[in-house]
């Protein structure tokens, strides 16, 4: 087992449970940041934490006055998440930056915190104003496109826009045995109708998706009519117009949490050329998942993303997430080549 694989394993096991359990703000995420800081220090990088807790390791360039070039991803996971989501981009970044060595521009490896709940780590980094000039995030695809195309790697063209909201339904709690059916105000029935509306609205808009992922019923007893339901909606679309239509159809009001973004044409071209150098098809594809790269791109950083093929039909946010060692090795090679060029120009 190579260093990268061992590190992925260590990170995967930190939180215990059936999958990755490095929930943002929890002990396992904190421990993951400490471990990555140790690895960066061992590799001779200068390690720093920003006010939010994001970790940045720097390998100073020969022209440190130039804007920096960073690579990395996030260290938190969803509950029982996969082995690769976020973590792969961080451990691969360490390998790639070591392989590049000293370049003209300062190279940085970044491990963002708190991505899964809405890219809070990268948003904090943007608010803090200490950004690189260029950023490349390596990440598993988390979908089936590359597997279907038999392509190990892909270059991301754009990142979906998204909005998350909590919706509350108020009804009247009452006795499940004595309240006639025509005298009920059941909050869960109203919520159930809304869940179906969420699905129908997203289906009616090309490229849109929407999910109700959490639903809490109060008081939550077998013999009590639900008096209150809280649910979450995660709504996404490839552009602001379609996301706006979706939010309107769901009565969620305006307001995009994470703007849809196109990634930088120059960085994309560099990544495509690296795939060609490796004899791979230069596949390009959009991302339906949100990423810290999208936040940096929206803040004006020249940003690119390299996707690595997800196996098992592209399943992600699940312990069944799988990517092969061979594809990871190709991805590290492509990332190394891209960083070398981006840091010397
Ligand atoms: C991040 O994983 C997302 O929800 O897109
Ligand atoms: Mn991720
Ligand atoms: Mn994720």
What would you say this structure looks like, in words?
The chain has 345 residues and is of the alpha/beta class. It has two domains: 2-160 and 260-343, Zn peptidases (Aminopeptidase, 3-Layer(aba) Sandwich), CATH 3.40.630; 161-249, Alpha-Beta Plaits (2-Layer Sandwich), CATH 3.30.70. It has ten helices and 15 strands. The chain has helices at 3-13, 27-42, 87-100, 120-128, 145-149, 187-203, 240-249, 265-277, 292-298, 325-343; strands spanning 46-49, 55-59, 69-74, 107-112, 134-140, 153-159, 161-170, 174-175, 209-211, 215-218, 224-225, 228-237, 261-262, 284-287, 302-308. The strands form three sheets. Strands 1, 2, 3, 4, 5, 6, 13, 14 and 15 form a nine-stranded mixed sheet that branches. Strands 7, 9, 10 and 12 form a four-stranded antiparallel sheet that branches. A hairpin with a 5-residue loop joins strand 1 and strand 2 (55-59). The relative contact order is 0.18. It binds glyoxylic acid (GLV) and manganese (II) ion (MN) (2 copies). One manganese (II) ion binds at residues 74, 85-86, 115, 139.
Nutshell version of this structure?
This protein is α/β, with parallel strands linked by helices and 345 residues long. The protein is built from ten helices and 15 strands.
* Helical segment count: 10
- Small molecules (ligands, ions, cofactors) in the structure: glyoxylic acid, manganese (II) ion
Relative helix content: 25-40%
Reading the helices and strands in chain order gives: HHEEEHEHEHEEEHEEEEHEHEHEH
Strand content: 15-25%
Structural category: alpha/beta
User: What is the CATH architecture term of the largest domain?
Assistant: 3-Layer(aba) Sandwich
Q: Can you tell me the number of structural domains?
A: 2
Question: How would you characterize the largest beta sheet?
Answer: 9 strands, mixed
Oligomeric state of the chains in view: single chain
CATH top level assignment of the largest domain: Alpha Beta
The geometry reads as elongated
CATH superfamily membership of the largest domain:
Zn peptidases
């Amino acid at each position: 087992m190579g260093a990268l694989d061992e590190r992925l394993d260590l990170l995967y096991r930190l939180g215990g449970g059936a999958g990755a359990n490095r929930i943002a703000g929890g002990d396992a995420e904190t421990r993951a940041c400490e471990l990555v800081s140790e690895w960066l220090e061992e590799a001779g990088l200068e390690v720093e934490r920003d006010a939010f807790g994001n970790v940045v390791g720097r390998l100073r360039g020969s022209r440190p006055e130039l804007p920096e070039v960073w690579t990395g991803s996030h260290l938190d996971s969803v509950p029982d998440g996969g082995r690769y989501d976020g973590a792969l981009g961080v451990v691969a970044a360490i390998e790639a930056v070591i392989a590049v060595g000293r370049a003209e521009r300062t190279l940085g490896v970044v491990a963002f915190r708190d991505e899964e709940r809405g890219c809070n780590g990268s948003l904090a980094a943007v608010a803090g104003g200490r950004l690189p000039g260029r950023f490349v995030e390596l990440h598993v695809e988390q979908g089936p496109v590359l597997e279907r195309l038999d392509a190990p790697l892909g270059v991301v063209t754009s990142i979906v826009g998204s909005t998350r909201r909590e919706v509350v339904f108020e009804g009247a709690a009452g006795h499940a045995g004595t309240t006639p059916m025509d005298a009920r105000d059941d909050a869960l029935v109203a919520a159930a109708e809304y869940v179906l509306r969420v699905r129908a609205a997203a289906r009616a808009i090309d490229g849109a998706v929407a999910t109700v992922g959490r639903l809490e019923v109060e008081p939550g007893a077998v013999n009590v009519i639900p008096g209150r339901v809280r649910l979450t909606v995660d709504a996404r679309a490839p552009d602001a117009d379609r996301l706006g239509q979706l939010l309107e159809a769901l009565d969620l009001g305006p307001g995009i949490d994470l703007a849809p973004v196109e990634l930088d044409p120059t960085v994309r071209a560099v990544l495509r050329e690296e795939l060609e150098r490796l004899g791979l098809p230069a596949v390009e594809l959009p991302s339906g998942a949100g990423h810290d790269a999208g936040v940096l791109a929206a803040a004006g950083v020249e940003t690119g993303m390299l996707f690595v093929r997800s196996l098992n039909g592209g399943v992600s946010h699940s312990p069944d997430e799988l990517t092969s060692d061979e594809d990871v090795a190709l991805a590290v090679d492509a990332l190394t080549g891209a960083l070398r060029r981006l840091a010397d120009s």
